[in-house]
Amino acid sequence: LKPRARILLVDDDSDFVLINRTVLEGAGYAVMTASSGPEGFDAAMAERPDLAILDVMMEEPTEGFDLARRLRADPSFADTRIILLTSINRHFRPLSFAPDPDWLPVDRFLEKPLAPEELLRQVKGILGAAEDG
Amino acid sequence: MASEASGMARILVIDDERGIREGCRRVLQAEGYHAETAENGEGGLRAVEAGKFDLLLVDVKMPGMSGIELVRRVREVDPSLVCVMITGYATLETAVEATRSGAYDFLPKPFTPDELLAKVSKGLDRHWLELEARRLREERERNLLAKSQFIAMVAHELSSPLAAIRGYMDLLLGDAPLEEGARRQMMERSRDRAASMLDLIDDLLDVAAIEAGQVTRTAESVEASALLQEAVDLVRDQAAADGIAVDLERPQLLPAVHGNREDLLRVFANLLSNAVKYNRKGGSVHVSARVQGDQVRIEVRDTGIGIPAECLPKVFDEFYRVKRAETRHIPGTGLGLSIVKKIVEAHLGSISVDSAPGVGSTFTLLLPVAQPSR
């Protein structure tokens, strides 16, 4: 039996943590959580998750970006997949953000709120790709 | 000729003919204007780039750069600069060409000092009008930008609780089984987020009412002393739940302040509620009031978590909340202090804050004493 994939949720809104944790645990993933960028980095160091799902705006408006770059700068996280979640995209039309190897080094950039089935579909897609690669 | 306002106006005379140049300067200076000269187009352009002028007197025909070319280039840099052309031979073609390049008026040679001053005075009026129009235009643009930023923030603040509620509903209505405890927690959280959203809408309506100028609609003499007691009573239960002592210190006779009773109660209650909310368990809130000159000085001091120095300038901004681990679970709309400040300023008062992280914050309020009716 394959070990359960491990997912780290980082969001300062405890409601989104609870909602996404419930969805992911319901689908059989092992979930750990943190409520700030620095806490998230410590949790990532300790838990070595397969996937980190990060909120962009926490205490600082770019805290999720910063954490994503910090993880990417550390070669030991080379296999860790990253999803950034934000509610800002819709407010900044016509600007939009997309993953970019240099300044937005993440696997997915998704808008909140995500319906449960959509979250699972994205997570499955990313973790599946990681296993195939 | 009236010239009280002329002292500040800066005028540049550009003419290759020394007699005209110096003559204009003498007349203008005698009238109280600041006048400078240049003897050709290139010199004039350099002078315009170096110093701020309000009006240019420009000879149409000069060796090198023509007056018309100079006006065209000057107006590209500053369209509010008024240019009056000095012409020896005012043909229709010249006039059309000069006007097209941005010249405002013509002064045909020879001219008397009064003719010169009349043209200058008319040109300056035009210049001040143009500056005022530009200022209004810029102010309008700033207001529009501030408004769209405010709307973006409101949209963000309104969508977060709804997104959370929708997330909970997706789970509660979904096929995945949930334990009864988890179901109940999700329903409670949904209710709390809905409640916080209603608070936010209340605050938004208050902001709108204040900005519509309704805050001073029924100003009267208000007994600040009794109103402070009322505000203290409002937070008493909330404070007791966290073991926080609230005390009120005021002189026997505190003069009434001038304002709207309901709005001032809102200010006091908001400051006191913050002092309790952001306090530590077993802490205290000290409220004091005294006369200071022709104002009543009210201080609300708490023993709470305090505000970091770098956040202090922003605490009265709309939707600004100091985000830290300690404040994350304290509910708030981010509008309370901005409403307080708007009300206080509409009462011709002022509010300031002093704080030390880990020690506490003090909010100081100055409100005008009500003038005894005669």
Describe the protein's topology.
The complex is a heterodimer of chains A (133) and B (374).
Chain A: E1 6-10, H1 14-26, E2 30-34, H2 37-47, E3 51-55, H3 63-73, E4 81-86, E5 108-111, H4 116-132
Parallel strand pairs in A: 1-2, 1-3, 3-4, 4-5
Chain B: E1 10-14, H1 18-30, E2 34-38, H2 41-50, E3 55-59, H3 67-77, E4 82-87, H4 92-101, E5 105-108, H5 113-173, H6 180-211, E6 220-222, H7 224-241, E7 245-249, E8 257-259, H8 261-277, E9 284-292, E10 295-302, H9 336-346, E11 350-356, E12 360-368
Parallel strand pairs in B: 1-2, 1-3, 3-4, 4-5, 7-9
Antiparallel strand pairs in B: 6-8, 9-10, 10-12, 11-12
Helix pairs in contact in B: 2-3, 5-6, 6-9, 7-8, 8-9
The overall average pLDDT of chain A, rounded, is: 84
Percent helix among the residues of chain A?
25-40%
In terms of DSSP E residues, the strand content of chain B is 15-25%
Q: Tell me what portion of residues of chain A adopts beta-strand conformation.
A: 15-25%
Question: What's the multimeric state?
Answer: heterodimer
Outline of chain B: elongated
Number of distinct beta strands of chain B: 12
Q: What is the number of helical segments of chain B per DSSP (H or I, 4+ residues)?
A: 9
- Give the averaged pLDDT of chain B, no decimals: 88
Distance between the termini of chain B: 47 Å
Radius of gyration of chain A: 14 Å
Binned, the helix content of chain B reads 40-55%
Structural class determined from secondary elements of chain A: alpha/beta
What is shown here, in short?
The complex is a heterodimer of chains A (133) and B (374). Chain A has 133 residues and is of the alpha/beta class. Chain A is built from 4 helices and 5 strands, in the order βαβαβαββα.
